Structure formats: structure tokens, C-alpha cells
């Protein structure tokens, strides 16, 4: 907020508060003198006035603070503004009185009279003060008398931009130039002072309050000299910044280090307090809706699993604030065989998916994005990557704020009008805009009048996601018949019971440690604390293995982070000595094996066991194991720890076949006693840091 807006806001606040006091007295006089059956005293209504003032300060914080059009509004617009402010204040007052059940103390007729009088008085005083502020002759607040130093040829334009603007703080009294040869004696009736010495003459300095320097023809050294001399005489000096006229978009002055800069933005940004309040509102609404989401998720999970097993939520790449990509969560609407069903002329929707789509509930998981700070409840639409590349500059400028679950784009048919509404929303945000848009969109959804549709892009995205789910659910192909060894049923059943009990107990007991590690990892570089990796489980089933993230967020950019020697080692062993991608906390997690702890979730789900061969990737499997070895390795559940990890860890590698031999040895000799021995050996190895490499 610049100084003009700040000073004007103070005046508006003073005018409004004065209006409330005057309206308070007038309303009492009207009620007591012209309407019968009223015996109350003015002092009885002091608490009412106090509530009104508190309500006004809330409205001022949420609504008026960003309203910078006071000096630009005509009488009709000012009257509408007074009605709106008075209505907001009285709404909060009535809510307060009814919430605390004290509304009966005050006359409803008095409240109606007060609202009416408040609108009239506020409008009258606002209009009066605005007229007097903008009148240079009879202004209530005398403007500063300014000496304007500039090129005489351009002086008329600068005088017009100052004297004829809505800026009531300044008035050009004299025009000055360093050129003593200038022929003009005055500019539009304003005397022209020529020469450096005459500009610093006592008579001239006594007639002005401050100086404005427009350095069109003056170098920076001369400007610095002028500033120094005027400051020595106690005059405030203002220097025009030419860079402000380069572009017509929103701009602001700031400092980056010792560098004075002009910042350009396509839209006037939200203030810090507005962003903070909007974020708090999102968190509050998100927490209120989250229990409903959990119940809906459970229902959708049950019905989806019965018809089309697979993930309930799908993730779609979207472009968010400041061009940052994120995963947007939604309920899965299609069956996993959606592509084949469409080819056969059948509906791709699940039964529950069709209901979710009709009721517009498929987007409810986006509250996870809201709570994570990636989205807001109300905001511009989050585009897909292809859509983002097609967007023009004005559309992209909307993404200076977080995208929303709903917004003007969901209720406005005309794209250009929706774009204009979104820009107005961002530049004039207040909490009432969010709440009104939320209520309006919910009503549109409930009456099936939403403009949100599933277009071809959305359909193709959903089909692609379902196709990848189906591919993941399809086990890898290998010759199972090459290994016919089977574990005893009693051993397998007993081992599963132990896995379930120990994993459930471990998850409960280690939850504080999980929380601590999550906080540390997030604070390290701001990334997600977990990551999942596709591995191969028993009978060739693909599983997602959970781990604490120990690498940088951009660890996937191997060519940028690794040298040729490291890349070759990664291709051979799928591991790297002194890996530069590992974070500080990640190195500790790996040395202590704490990065593996989230695999307790895989054990609880029955995808892994506490003891077994380590789960590996598909390429890693077929590169290092032959046909019968693959069948043997995949005949058992992979483990959190195993014979290779407990007795060798990183000291046994693929290239000398030692790791393969140890993993296959376990499969051939697995037993309950062997599992217990491996389990305790693992603990000892971790404590002694045997075979550890960073």
C-alpha cells in the first residue's frame, strides 16, 4: 500500500467511525422522540455501539483495507459502498447478539433505524470529505506546496499529472529548471525559476514545503547534489523513478540487499495479511471438511474395491502458483479397464464414480492439496500442462495466487468474463468474496447447474491413469515352473501372524519417531518426507515400497547430478558410493537403516515380510538373476531385512554374484529359527554399523 492509499484509508476510517457515533445519537433521538413505547436511556446502548465499532474494525481488516477506490468513485458508487460496509457491520453485530443470546436487550426497530441512518450519514460524510479533499482551494487538509524541477518543455504534463490528479497531498506552486537560458517565464500560469542558485534562494525556499525532481535532463551526480542542498535547508525531496513508466502493469519499489529495484507484476498482488488470512481460512475450512472426506473415502473405497480393485485416489499433474507443478488429488471415476470398455461401447465409469461425478464430489480429495498449501478453496483454475502451454499471458498472470477447488471459472460461461472476474477477485480479495463464491458454487452444484464438465482432456487423463493402474496390477511374466520348492503352510501362516502383530505394534510404538523424522526431513529441503518405489513382490506382483526420503527432491535428474563413473556404477549396481544426491539427514537415515522403517506399512498390508530377500526392481531382477533363479527368488515375500542384508549388507555385490547367492540361499533354507537368527543379526549389524556406506 502506497502512502496516498494509506493516508486516504486513515481518513475513510475516521469518517466511518464519526458516522457511527453520529448515527448512534440520531437513531436514539428518532426512536425516543418520534416512536412511542420507548423508555431506554442512551447509556443503555453503549455496549451496542462498542460491538458496532469492533465489527467495523473486523470489516476494515478484511474488506476496506484493500479498497483503494475511495477517491475514484462517483456518488452512486460511494452510496453502494456505504450500504455494503454498513450491511457487513450490522450483519456481524446481529450474529454476535444472537450468538450470545443478548439480542432481546436491544430494540429491533432501533437496529433498523440505526442501519438506515448509518448509511445516510456515512454516505454524506464520505462525499463531503472527498469533495473537500479534492478541492485545491478549500481543502480541509492543506496540500504541500511543491517546487517541481524538470525540463520546462515537459513541465505542463507533469503539473497536470500532479495538480489535476486525485492525489490531494501535493500542489505545484513553482516550477524550476537548471537551464538559465530557458525562454519561458511561467508554465500554465505557474512561475518558472531558472538556475541552480535561484532554486536555493531563501525567498523561494520559504514559499515551498518540498521538492519534486524529475531527472529528465539531469545526471545522477547533479540529482545527488540537489538532494544534499535541499536537505540542508530542511526540505523534503522526492525524486521521480523513470523505470516506473517503462510498463503499465502493477509495480512497486523494494530493496534486494543493497539494490533498489522496481518490481513489475501483471496483477496487483494480495497483501501479506490477506495471504495469511486466506491461508488460515483454508486450513480452518479444510479441517472442518476433512472428517466428511474421510467418511466419503471409506464408502468409495468399499464400493470401488468391489467393482474395480485399485487405488481410490488418482493424481493428476497440474500447474499451480508461480508456475510450480503439483499433483492434484481426485477420486477415481473409471474402471481400470476403461479403455477396453470404451472400445466395446460400454461405460468406463464405476457405479460409485458415476454418482461422484453427478454430485461433483470427485474433487473432494483436493482438500488434501488445500491442507498441503498447494491449492486454496477459491481461486483460478489449475491448468494441465498442455493447457498451460496454450494459455496467453493474461491467463498465466492469474497463477500469481494458488489455484482453487472452485472459482469464477466454475460459474461463468463466457471465458473472457470469467478471466476478468478472476482478475478482479485477486486484486480486490476479501473473505466475503471467498465465502460468497463457495456458497454460490455449492448451490450451483446441488441444483446441477455447474459449468464444471469432464472434457476430452480429462477423459484421456483418467483413461491413462487407469491404464497405468491395470499395468501395475498385472504381475510380471516369468517361468514359475522352473522352481517347484514350496514352504510349509504352517510356517507361512505362523510367519504371517508374527509379521502382522509385530508390524502393527511397531507402527504404534514408533509413531513418535515417525513424526520427528517427518518434521526433520520436511525442514531440510521442504520436500515430501516419503517416497514410493515400484518393486517386485511374491509371484511377480508389483508393489509400492515405502521409504523415508533420503535423497534430494531432484534426485531423478541423474545426468545433472552424477559424473560418468557414478552413472556407470548406478547402471551396474543400482547404488553409488558417496552418492551426491543424498541429503544430510538422508545419510544418517541410511547409516542407521531408519529410512526403511515405513516398510512396516508394506508388512502390515501383507506385501512384505519382516525377513526375506530384499525387494528389487524389474530391470534389476532380470539383469542379475537367470530364469530358475528368478522363479526361486519370487516364490517368497520380500523382506524388510534378510540374510544378505544382515550378514553382508553393502559388502556383497551383484557383480561377483555374492548377493544373489545369499538371497537364494535364504529361499532354500528358510525356517522360523533362521528368520529369528537373521532378525537379531540385523539389529547387531545396524548397531555396529557393519557394511555401512554413505
Question: How would you describe the overall organization of this protein?
Answer:
The chain is an alpha/beta fold. The protein has 4 domains: 3-133, no CATH class; 144-240, 3-Layer(aba) Sandwich (Rossmann fold), CATH 3.40.50; 272-471, no CATH class; 475-688, no CATH class. 51% of the residues lie in helices and 12% in strands. The protein has 28 helices and 16 strands. The strands form 6 sheets. The protein has a 6-stranded mixed beta sheet, sandwiched between helices. A hairpin with a 5-residue loop joins strand 13 (530-536) and strand 14. Helix 2 crosses helix 3 and helix 3 packs antiparallel against helix 4 (108-133). The longest helix is centred in the middle third of the chain and has 36 residues, at 272-307. The model has no long low-confidence stretch (mean pLDDT 84).
Oligomeric nature of the chains? single chain
End-to-end Cα distance: 51 Å
Give a quick account of the main beta sheet: strands, pairing sense, barrel closure: 6 strands, mixed
The counted number of beta strands is 16
Helical amount among residues, as a percent range?
Answer: 40-55%
Q: What is Rg?
A: 36 Å
Q: How many domain units?
A: 4
Question: Which outline best applies?
Answer: elongated
Number of helices: 28
Q: Could you say which structural class the secondary elements and strand pairing correspond to?
A: alpha/beta
User: Regions with pLDDT < 50 over 5+ consecutive residues?
Assistant: none
The spatial strand order of the largest sheet comes to: 3-4-2-1-5-6
Give the overall average pLDDT: 84
Beta content = 5-15%
